[in-house]
Amino acid sequence: MYASSFPANLAAAVAAAAVAAAVDDHGAAAAANAAAAAAAVAAKAAAAAASRCCMNAQVRCLQQQQQQQQQQQQQQQQQQLQQQQEQQQLQQQQELQQQQQQQLRLQQELPSLFDYNSL
After folding, report:
1. What count of other Cβ atoms lies within 10 Å of the Cβ of residue 11?
2. Residues 6 or more apart from 15 whose CB is under 8 A from it?
3. Among positive and negative, which fits the CA dihedral 61, 67, 70, 75?
4. What pLDDT is attached to residue 19?
């Protein structure tokens, strides 16, 4: 707040000094010209302060957007990793079931291979 009011305060002080000097030297017309010049300086200073404030707000907004995008990307990456892990677990379970089924078939066929009575 103080930084944005400083240019206006400085311009007002310059205007007051210019008006006082102009009144002493050239009269009321010169004082009016000096006051107009000081007002123009004050207006430029206020516009510059407002511009800096606006730019700072835009920078903060862009930073927040970047943070949100990074968070979304991280969440997507975590979801993809979780899906990959779930798929791997499912594949492992399927492979284990296939192995168990093969073992069961072998166990069922094995006695018939050694059944000498069937020969």
Report:
1. 20
2. 34, 35, 37, 38, 39, 41, 42
3. negative
4. 67
